[in-house]
Amino acid sequence: MDKIVIRGGQKLKGAVKIGGAKNAVLPIMAACLLARGESVVTNVPGLRDVVTMKSVLERLGVRASLNDHTLRIDTAAMDGFEAPYDLVRTMRASIYVLGPLLASHGKAKVSLPGGCAWGPRPVDLHIRAMQELGAQIEIEHGYIIASSSGLKGRPIKFSIASVGATANTMMAAATAEGKTQIINAAKEPEIVALAEFINKMGGAVTGAGTDTIEIEGVKSLRPTEFATIPDRIETGTYMIAGAITAGKIEIKDCCPQHVDSLSMVLRQAGVGVECSGGTISIKGRRDIASVDVLTSPYPGFPTDLQAQYMALMSVARGNSIISETIFKDRFTHVPELRRLGADIKIEGNTAHVGYVKRLSGAPVMATDLRASAALVLAGLVADGETHISRVYHIDRGYEGIESKLGGLGALIERVPE
Ligand code: UD1
User: Fold this and answer.
1) pLDDT tens digits, one per residue of 143-183
2) Runs of H (alpha helix) within 322-361
3) Best exposed site among 161, 225, 235, 394 by fewest CB in 10 Å?
């Protein structure tokens, strides 16, 4: 196992390029199952989660290759319908094959993902939506066993605007008979990208990006080509990297509009944020002000940037309150940030972040994907060396983080543990 070693204190400068969005690619890979033949997806990040989803598809008999950020998925020889526990437990997004398998095969056997490091994370909304579309579902031996003799479109109202359940329902409904309406749909850019992909395959999805999505079922879909949208969480992480180091950096090939909520908060904290086309320029400063944040669904402040933002607030000049409303226990980064000297107290779903003069490097452990990004960011400003172990978490969502940060002047390296 590798670890990342960072020697803090460098102001970042220069430019960094953002890759394709992991959370857009994963459902799009599953949506390829809806058509027979080869689909091609470009601007795909070389990430562990993408490789895991590729393995999930390969277990279904799909031929898939990922070369130079181009993913080819050929479903011509597809003959399986099971997403096994050994893969689903390593990546919850494997559940995205449920809807497409039901739509294309009329059956699916998908392992229940179980809990995750920050809480129970149920999949009840996915299951209920499939049932509402007419699927029979049994839970047996830890698996969702689903079957259908033809899905039928209908209105589905979600109690929570879930990204995953919205995506799964869109995919299942794409070839269902009649019209499906998703009420209280997730509005995230990744949902819009999936709708565009399904439409490029010949589907009829409207309203993606609003809270009501309509899917007119079509008889069949055809393979297509698609370029992935930029990763807004990677973008936000580098914006915070510029801010926390009092650096001056340009973030290229991104979509500034997708990170508006973070830009607004950073500006309030005194950070310079300028957007032009697909580039964001960040000008950090030493005396960052404290700004409270509440995570919420898009276009609100993303839960996937909460940990990284907490690293920034750990070195801000004052006290801040960070409330997590999406995954209420998502604070596994807190004990590790405390090891670096941060003053953070948790009360329910709220973190109270106090002022400390400086952070100091220490050995810490990555506990999940975004938590590990927070530790990298804290390490960039901590005195001395920070050693981050279990970096496989970071490889799930950040391609070449040490070369990208190194290119900006950070002293960072990956070494065998
Ligand atoms: C996706 C993202 C994840 C991000 C999250 C919220 C992917 C692969 N992952 O996860 O990075 O943090 O959106 O932006 O895109 N819920 C239920 N029942 C369900 C489904 C969800 O109660 O069946 C709840 C969840 O526990 C959570 C809320 O709904 O409290 C939102 O979760 P959801 O949007 O579904 O997150 P994911 O799709 O799992």
Assistant:
1) 999 999 999 999 999 999 999 999 999 999 999 999 999 99
2) 333-339
3) 225
Q: What is the mean pLDDT of the chain?
A: 96
User: What ligand 1 atom has the least distance to the C-alpha of 160?
Assistant: 29
Which residue minimizes the CA distance to atom 7 of ligand 1?
A: 23
Q: How many residues are present in the chain?
A: 417
Phi then psi for residue 265, to 5 deg, are -65, -40
Question: For ligand 1, atom 26, which residue shows the shortest CA distance?
Answer: 121
Q: What is the DSSP letter of 175?
A: T
pLDDT band at 44 (very low <50, low <70, confident <90, very high): very high
123 lines ligand 1 (CB under 6 A): yes
Residue 49 alpha carbon, nearest atom of ligand 1: 8
Whole-model pTM?
Answer: 0.97
Pocket test for ligand 1, best of 237, 295, 326, 328 (most atoms within 8 A of CB): 326
Three-state DSSP class for residue 208 = strand
Q: Is 255 considered catalytic here?
A: no
CA of 272 to the centre of ligand 1 (A): 31
Based on its alpha-carbon atoms, the radius of gyration of the chain, rounded to whole angstroms, reads 21
Candidate list 32, 116, 254, 275, residue with the active-site label? 116
My answer on whether omega of the bond before 155 falls inside 30° of 0, hence cis, is no
